Amino acid sequence: MEQNSELNVTGPYSDVIMDHYRNPRNREHILDYDIEINDSNPFCGDEVHLKIKLDGLSQISAIGAGSKGCSIIQASTSIMAEEIVGKTYKQIMALYEVFNGVINGKCDPPDLSYPENLLALNVVRDYPVRIKCVLLPWVALLEVLRKI
Ligand code: ZN
Description:
Layout: H1 14-22, E1 35-41, E2 46-55, E3 59-68, H2 71-84, H3 89-103, H4 116-120, H5 131-145
Zinc ion (ZN) is lined by residues 44, 46, 69-70, 72-73, 133.
């Protein structure tokens, strides 16, 4: 479902979102994966499909990340894939806690170490209905990681 027209992505970070939307990262299918995650948001038709390879150190070593739906879910999935490769589950969960707070407007980005990619997604703070689009890949991933 294409809903670009509803969301006016402008401002200093719009290039980041449009770049990830047009050239999604880690989109290649990986054959040798440990976890497969498929999730969707029936309200807007967004879908996320993740294939993840783990290494023995509770760390994500590779990800194949695909999504369908609005520009925001596609950009967010690509950005998440880029941010989580090489991180441990604990690091990913900690990052998500901060990201979730920032996106929901409960707190500001903590410091300059906050990834610019995630900062770019702050445009949805003005479009509360899109927060679910941004968070879908993260929620789907964390639901699985919490059980490992
Ligand atoms: Zn969406």
